[in-house]
Amino acid sequence: RGQKEVEETATVQKKEKSKTEATKPENIVSLLQVDPMELEIGYSLIPLVDTGQGGDLLDRIVMIRRQCALELGLVVPTIRIRDNIQIKPNAYIIKLKGIEIAKGELLLDHFLAMNSGTVFEEIQGIETQEPAFGLPALWIPEASREQAELNGYTVVDAVSVLATHLTEVIKAHADEILGRQETQNLIDNARKTNSTLVDEIVPDLMSVGEIQKVLANLLRERVSIRDMATILEVLADYARATKDTEILTEYVRHALSRQITQQYTQNNQLTCITLDPTIENRIAGAVQRTDRGSYVSLDPDTMQKILAALGAELQKLTDMGYQPIVLTSPTVRLYFRKLVERSVPGIIVLSHAEIEQTVEIQIIGVVKI
User: Fold this and answer.
1) In a designed cystine with 368, which of 31, 83, 206, 276 is the match (CB 3.0 to 4.6 A)?
2) Are strands 348-351 and 154-157 parallel, antiparallel or unpaired?
3) What is the extent of the structural domain holding 273?
4) Is 88 within 8 Å of 42 (Cβ atoms)?
5) Which helix (H) or strand (E) segment is 364 a member of?
6) What are the start-end ranges of the E strands in 189-342?
7) Has residue 30 been placed in a domain?
8) Can you give the CATH number for the domain in which 103 is found?
9) For 78, which DSSP code?
């Protein structure tokens, strides 16, 4: 009887302990944690992360983070991978701060064949869309891979499709990934070799939040922030004259002209379109400045005409295989970009001050109204 009582008491204590643990505030607080970046995969894609089955997605993600550090100067936080039985077995979802920002589907036993304009004979396959750039593509079995390549298709495996998509999503949202803590880490890293420069700026001239805004502005237009020394030098020079982070960003872009030139020129040539001086004058005259920054106030009719003319000229560029680059005067670049970025995603707006003088500029068209 004594043994039985001891066992019952132990059972009751165990239940009470587990009940207490379940209601501990720590357990609830841990649920509030939001991962900076997540990748959710359907159960059919689990082999991609299982090294025992030859999955190398984890290694690919390490390489992606390294690539982003080299290309953008951004240290991407650890990407949490989890399986999700509520989505399609062959689907994946990319999340930023807990919110879905991209998704796709993969066929693990197939390859993705894309027509990059060099295909002379089409092949059969399951029609789909390449997720990173939205290009039409085909899922083909491994047996058709060699023939597809001979026919001029670009062929990649499923894990490469996902890796490319993830890389492009990171680049497109780099400005959101960079928070104050990430900015502080970059400043601390710069302090190791430029302590005098950093001490001059932070906190007397600029706060970490203000520096973050400048860096985010650069990343939003895919300008690398790896050269922190140059960026901080410019901020030290101009932060006394203005606290407007958008204007400061323009000064930084001018200082990074060699880097920007290299990014967008081929064989020392920049192929682009420009704005008619009339449009530039209208935009400059329509700039409204407030305590929260500047914006352009144009009437809807003028705005519509500019967008229509811009679309027609950009089409000429893309039809010829060039990037959608618009070259403007330095005073208008920021405001023109603000004006059109929502209507024309992917547009690249550069100013003359950001292009090295040795570059040959080839103008394909002029935006006029």
Assistant:
1) 276
2) unpaired
3) 266-367
4) yes
5) strand 360-367
6) 269-275, 287-290, 293-296, 325-328
7) no
8) 3.40.30.60
9) P
